[in-house]
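1st attempt posting a full record on here, be nice pls
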Amino acid sequence: MPEDHAPDQPGSGERSAFEKFLGIFAEVRGGEGTNAVLMFLNIFLILAAYYILKTVREGLTIAGVTLGSIEGDEAKAYLNAIMAFVLLGFIPIYGYLGTRMGRLKLIRTTMTFLVLCLVVFLVWGQATGVGTAIGIAFFVWLGAFNYFLVAQFWSYANDIYSEEQGKRLFAVIAIGQSAGAVVGPLIAENLSDYTFPLLGLAALFLVASIVLYSAVNGREERSDDAAKRALAEKPLSKEGGFELVFKTKYLFLIALTMLVTNLVNTTGEYLLSNTAKTYSKEEVTAASVLEPAAPTGEKPAAAPADARPIDEKTLTPLQQRELRDRRGAVVSNFYARFFFYVNLVGILVQMLLVSRIFKYLGVRVALFFLPAIAFGGYAAIGLIGGLVIVRLVKTAENATDYSLQNTVKQALYLPTSREAKYKAKAVIDVFFVRFGDTGSAVVIGIGLHALTFGIRQIALVNVGLCAVWLLITVAIAREHRRLTSEDGHAAGPAPAAAAAR
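the predicted structure (as tokens):
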């Protein structure tokens, strides 16, 4: 049954007209609308910024990075492994800051650092253009901190909402995440000729996000609930994130789920990156760099059918830079369109289905949607193959991941302690996710170079990993049932340590 609310507490008063409108997408009660909208706008800005940066990253990496005979699409898989080691140093620092700062100061400090990093990349890129050094640095930086950026938001959301509120409101707040993921690629596509200035735009979005955090936190501090006011600036305990994960069965199963999820997804991303690389080379050849620019509005003349390809190594350094820059723009545009369609499907799922799946099927059943879709999708690639199948599978997988699965994985933390929501969640959403990327690098490296696998064989490896994923999902559903009552409401605000065995 729903939790009792004091008369002046959010969730107990009469609903405003706007709150009734929000009720189309999720169950929003009286007094909950303002914070829900502020949180909606916040995650919208974070995701819009992230997808602008992600689009820039693909152009810098796929078109700009060359490590000997290894080109950008394959190099991405190996660079993911570097991120895990970068995060080994960052996670303890984040935990240390959390024990000495209230949540708002922690958020302001970490996000200001990210904004300053973007300013550095903007200046660097304007000076050098697309190239291997900036491509590697930006890929590792964004990959290391992008999950942290989103994870911190949902840690904060888990902190300010009770389990009962989170199960109702996360669905509508997450619409902002899906909407930002649609708008970001649209901005990047329309401004794809301005690769590095896009970094400055993303930085402005993150600054606005800090302002929204301050607004929500100010409302929490002014709450009539003394416990909420005290919690707003209370530092975390000194218990470490890794310690919490490894001593708590429930958290450890979440960590395994995230690891395997990202292992499968990142291996699938290689299939898509390979497609994008081939497409960019077909669109921008070495010969096209030597040709005079076509008049505005006209396509360049097609090369004769019997023309011999020009060796890219014979181009001058300036021509090679132009080739990389133009291919980078093509790849950025390719991914901007792909991200747009993925996130368009994702926002429709988020708006129309997620809250209903939660209400009628529950969190535990919702856990199985993504692994089942991935299992069938990669089986289709392995058995049939082809460009159309790859794009359809990745669209379905990513759209489900960014909508339903994202809301599910945030809801899994609702019955855990505050330390678990910040420290353990940061470890899981950042380190274990990137450890999955490291595993993907191993799979791709061995598959391509030791076993000479093609796209279809790598897809079949993913099918086997999806089977393991489904087994872990069964285990985590059992633990979630143990921590909550049969009807999906909290059995009690048990701390994460209570799940340890």
